[in-house]
Amino acid sequence: MLPAPDIDETPLPQEPPLEYVCRMAREKAQAGAVAAHGQPLGAVLGADTAVVLGDEILGKPADKEQALAMLKALNGNEHQVMSALALSHRGQLEVRYAITRVQFRHLDEVHLQAYVDTGEGADKAGGYGIQGLGAALVASLTGSYSGVVGLPLEQMVELLDQVGIRYWQTN
Does Hydrolase show up as a keyword for this record (predicted)? Predict the structure, then answer.
């Protein structure tokens, strides 16, 4: 696995959220497509995920106060999680995405603060992680659970199949 590429993840002015996550996935795949010594790699997968409330992208919270503000905004509401994948393979770049609707439970501030205090969502878009304790914040979802986690597996398998990479083989 390569280290995370050093790219600017700031959304462009007026950039729609889906275009943003697709662009980020492409840039990450392109940045990783050449190894440190300039040798092309066989295949590089780039991915990005955004939590979107209305038209606003909720990134990773800067601190506990921002995390709580995000959770309050999501509380009792539906939002979207957009995850994009880009596969760079033999000079080609293919992109796929998944959009999942997530309905948050309605919780009081004490519960939201308790979740923030766990620190689990500090490094996650929207300030929560559905794959851990944050699952208790969610009432329901429609779409890709793995996309909410950050890697939509159905789209990944589709990309790998397209280029003949057999993901189930160990060698």
Answer: yes
